[in-house]
Amino acid sequence: MRHAWLIIAHNEFTVLQKLVSMLDDARSDFYIHYDKKVPQIPEIKAQQGRLFVLPERIDVRWGTVSQIKTELLLLATAQKNGPYAHYHIISGTHLPLKPVSELFKFYDSHAGEEIMRFWNDDAGDADFKLRRYHFPIRNIKSFGKSFVKSLDNIIWRANLGIQKALGIRHFKKTNFYKTDNWKSLTEKASRYLVGNAGAILKKYRWSLCGDEYYGATEILSSGESFKVHDCKNLLYADFQGDTPRKLSMEEYPYLRNSDYLWARKFTSQSTI
C-alpha cells in the first residue's frame, strides 16, 4: 500500500525539498500544508510520488489548537485519496535518517499499529497544559518584542494565577497520554480522529500544546481496539528548554549512524 506523508511547513524550504526528495518513491504521496503566514508558496517537486498542496491554509500558532486543526485537516485531505498503510505527520524540518526502503520495511513490520513515541508520565505537565484554561496564547511565542505579545503574556499569566488561586480545573477524570505530535497513524485511527474532529477541537480549544496529547489520548480512550507501538527511537530532537535545537546539515552524517529513524529540526544555515 501507499504511504501518506503529511507535512506541516512554514520555513526552511530547502530542507523541505530535501525531505521530499529523500522520501520520493512510487509508494509515497505528499500532502503539504503551508502556514497562512508564508507570503509565497515555494515550488517543491517530487519525481515518483504524488504531491498535493493543501489549498486551505491555517495560521498556525505555537501551543494553540491551530496545530491540532492543521493535523486533522491534513488527515482529512489525504483520506480522500486513501486508504494508506500509514499517515505520517511530520514537519517540514524533519529528515529521515534511514533510506526510504528501510523506512517502508519498518512501517510494514508494524502494519496495523499506531506508531508514536510516548513521553514519561508527568502529572504536573498534563495538569498545567490541559486542565487549566489557556488564553490568550496566540502571540505568546511570536518572534520579537511587541505590545500585543507582552499584553497576551500578562493576561495569560494573570488568568493562570486566578485559576490556581480558585482551584479551577477541567477534565479532572481524564487520563492524558503524551507523545510527540509527530506520529504515524493507520487508516482506522486516522478516520476515527477525523470523524471526531469537532469534539476534539472543542475539547482542546483552551489547552496549551494539546497537539502533544490529543492523538494518543483520544485513541486510547476511544473504547476501540487500537494497537499502539511506543517507538523510542522514532525521532531525535535535542531540546533546549521547550524548544528543539536547530540541527545543521553538517550534523546529518553523524545522526544517520544512530538508531533513530528521524531527526528534526534541520536548518539549511550552518549552526556549527
Description of the molecule:
By secondary structure, this protein is of the alpha/beta class. The protein folds into 2 domains: 3-119 and 178-203 and 223-267, Spore Coat Polysaccharide Biosynthesis Protein SpsA, Chain A; 133-166, no CATH class. It has helices spanning 13-23, 66-79, 100-109, 123-130, 147-166, 187-195, 197-203, 214-220, 252-256; strands at 3-9, 28-34, 50-53, 87-91, 95-96, 113-116, 184-185, 227-230, 235-236, 239-240, 243-244, 247-248, 262-263, 266-267. It has a 5-stranded mixed β-sheet with strand order 3-2-1-4-7, with helices on both faces. A 3-stranded mixed β-sheet has the order 5-13-9. α1 (13-23) links the parallel β1 (3-9) and β2 (28-34). The longest helix has 20 residues, at 147-166. The chain is globular, with a radius of gyration of 19 Å. The termini are far apart. The model has no long low-confidence stretch (mean pLDDT 94).
What is this structure, in a nutshell?
The chain has 272 residues and is an alpha/beta fold. It is built from nine helices and 14 strands. The chain has two domains: 188 residues, Spore Coat Polysaccharide Biosynthesis Protein SpsA, Chain A (Alpha-Beta Complex); 34 residues, no CATH class.
Total strand segments: 14
Net shape: globular
CATH topology of the largest domain: Spore Coat Polysaccharide Biosynthesis Protein SpsA, Chain A
Strand order of the largest sheet: 3-2-1-4-7
Radius of gyration: 19 Å
The CATH architecture of the largest domain: Alpha-Beta Complex
Into how many domains do the coordinates divide? 2
CATH class of the largest domain: Alpha Beta
Global mean pLDDT: 94
Strand percentage, roughly?
15-25%
Largest β-sheet summary: 5 strands, mixed
Helix content: 25-40%
State the secondary-structure class. Answer: alpha/beta
Low-confidence stretches: none
Order of helices and strands: EHEEHEEHEHHEHHHEEEEEHEE
- Helical run tally: 9
